[in-house]
Amino acid sequence: AQTVTQSQPEMSVQEAETVTLSCTYDTSESDYYLFWYKQPPSRQMILVIRQEAYKQQNATENRFSVNFQKAAKSFSLKISDSQLGDAAMYFCAYRSPSGTYKYIFGTGTRLKVLA
Amino acid sequence: GAVVSQHPSWVICKSGTSVKIECRSLDFQATTMFWYRQFPKQSLMLMATSNEGSKATYEQGVEKDKFLINHASLTLSTLTVTSAHPEDSSFYICSVYGGGDNQPQHFGDGTRLSIL
Question: CB contact, 8 Å: B34 with chain A?
Fold first, then answer.
């Protein structure tokens, strides 16, 4: 069975600085999808970025980028130029390529942004 | 705009009553929807997978008689918490699978359920 681990329960970053949130996973599948979701205090789940395992190129969405290391089964999220609005819980999620399409979520990292 | 509409956003009711939560897919037909439960400061816990026109698939440990799921159309799934008790108080979130292997789940805004 697949597992997702987020080893940092909480992180802090100064406004305008860069922070990296870590996520590792365990799977025997060769093809899969990885996602980062943001959950602000409003508790909405907002998709931040996604990565297909068959793509070697790291995904980027504006200030958000990932460092996808398939062999190491690592999928970290880098937030550049951090803003106060980035403060939230961040969840890493794994999804198999077919079948039930269920997500396996990590336990989350709470990001605090300091003014 | 919103892809998924979840209603109500907050409900308070007395112990012993049943509560229905609706999840609507606004932008596309959804053969698969998911229901999650989230305790404070914890991750999302998948309760069940809702399949249009068939019985829901419940995760281990989830009482199917307590949490009734109906997915009667391609745009609507409902979760009914039957004979709710204070321990059922939680945040419930639905999501819609968008179809296509590389598509993400789209989440509703959640329902805060408080049982007195």
Answer: yes
